[in-house]
């Protein structure tokens, strides 16, 4: 059974930084993509960034490109999202998701991911 656990959310001021972590287990494949998605109440879940755990290929949405960086720790089965220069518009619940056999560009469609964590809340406010 796939398990994904997010951590690192919290309150941060505009222009500040935050690092989210996602630890995972139970993925029965060497070829999979893990990503970060966010969702505000009443809105569609948006793909923020994804990384292929095998070759490190990445995807970023236009809204975070140049500000957020996704990385992986192969030894520790963890994926990180470094959020820099955060904006009020980055306030959302952030979810980690994983899917086998897909490339990071499918991050643009959250419906293609079937394994999800419980989420962590990020609030950007002064």
Topology summary:
Elements: E1 3-7, E2 10-12, E3 18-25, E4 32-39, E5 46-52, E6 58-60, E7 68-73, E8 78-83, E9 92-100, E10 115-116, E11 120-124
Parallel strand pairs: 2-11
Antiparallel strand pairs: 1-3, 3-8, 4-5, 4-9, 5-6, 7-8, 9-10, 9-11
Structural summary, described in words:
With 126 residues, the chain is an all-beta fold. It is built from no helices and eleven strands. Strand 7 (68-73) and strand 8 form a beta hairpin. The termini are far apart. The mean pLDDT is 94.
Q: Enumerate how many helices there are, as a single number.
A: 0
* Derived structural class: mainly beta
- Give the biggest sheet: 7 strands, mixed
What pattern of helices and strands is seen along the backbone?
EEEEEEEEEEE
Taken as a percent bin, the fraction of beta residues is over 45%
Q: What is the rounded Rg?
A: 13 Å
Shape: globular
Work out the number of β strands: 11
Terminal CA distance? 40 Å
Helix content: under 10%
Mean pLDDT: 94
Unreliable stretches covering 5 or more consecutive residues: none
Keywords:
126 residues; mainly beta; 4-stranded antiparallel beta sheet; 11 strands; globular
Could you give a quick summary of the protein structure above?
This protein has 126 residues and is an all-beta fold.
